[in-house]
Amino acid sequence: MAVLAKPIPALYTVYILRSTVRHASLYIGSTPHPPRRLKQHNGQSRGGAARTSRGSLRPWEMVGLVSGFPGMVAALKFEYAAAPCPYAPKLSSRPSASGTACADRRGAGGL
Fold this sequence. Notes:
Elements: E1 12-19, E2 26-31, H1 34-41, E3 60-69, H2 72-82, H3 88-91, H4 103-106
Antiparallel strand pairs: 1-2, 1-3
């Protein structure tokens, strides 16, 4: 019985970027190839996110990596859960029943 070799799919990585100009500016994203993606965010190659394209915030540096996600969907779920809640400043005085302002956004099951 012949065994056909299948290519091993790339594992996804969730990364955190920080502006080297303005340290309070962070960006969270996911990719199977972090070095290439950093070059895109810094404008050294085509692509990147509109959020990181402002020249006043470039260059960006990777300050955190979580690797080993088997696919894009798993990485995106983690990325979504790790991102700061956009309503946190508005709702910080009125947390949800579970105790956090973002609990409703993430659902009862967490990730």
